[in-house]
Amino acid sequence: MTVELLKRAVWFLVFVLAQVIVLGRIHLLGVATPLLYVYFVLQFERNYPKWAILLWGFFMGLCVDIFSNTLGVATASLTMIAALQPYYYELFVPRDSVDDLKPSMTNLTPVKYSYYVVPLVLLYCIVFFTLEFFSFFEWWHWLLCVVGSTLITLVFIYTLEVVKSK
Which of 91, 87, 83 has its CA nearest to residue 108? Predict the structure, then answer.
């Protein structure tokens, strides 16, 4: 368990640093920002303690907020995704599978993995940009940010999955 916790802590640092130093500065066409750190929360295996997923999500969001100056937007959004992830993941895992099955394209089929990842990333982007804008006067810009960031985040997530499977 200690080795697994250490690995998770290293990945935590990698995702926070990647977001803060590199990905947070990317704004394609002024609307699409990769929010890859949500992938960290999506990777918790089946039967991982729900309270621990919430804590990991909260602290990752807090770290991103502190270094990105987003005033709790990432914390609230990522904590919400961390609360939903264990229950949503159960929908895609067969009942007779092992207890510590990790979500990936190799463990699930690519279609099931897409059904798992796409709605959670979309929901994350909707909540994130709704809290960030806190106004619907520029709803078209909000919509472009949600769609653009969701698409670029999904491209990064699928790229990581392909690299991880090889």
Answer: 91
Residue-by-residue pLDDT tens, the chain, 166 positions = 688 889 999 999 999 999 999 988 888 888 899 999 999 999 998 888 999 999 999 999 999 999 988 889 999 999 999 999 999 888 888 777 776 778 888 888 889 889 999 999 999 999 999 998 887 788 888 899 999 999 999 999 999 998 987 7
Q: CB neighbours (10 Å) of residue 84?
A: 17
Q: Can you tell me the distance from the alpha carbon of 46 to that of 110, in angstroms, rounded to the nearest whole number?
A: 18
Give pTM, 2 decimals. 0.90
d(CA 135, CA 143): 12
**Which residues, 6 or more positions from 27, have their beta carbon under 8 angstroms from its beta carbon?**
33
| Single-letter residue type at 119 | P
35, 153 contact by CB (below 8 A): yes
Selection from 49, 75, 71, 78 nearest residue 153 by Cα? 78
SS3 of residue 20 by DSSP = helix
Burial of 21 (0-12, 13-18, 19+ CB in 10 A): exposed
Nearest to 15 by CA among 44, 45, 35, 30: 35
Beta-bridge partners for 32 = 28
Distance CA 132, CA 77 (A): 10
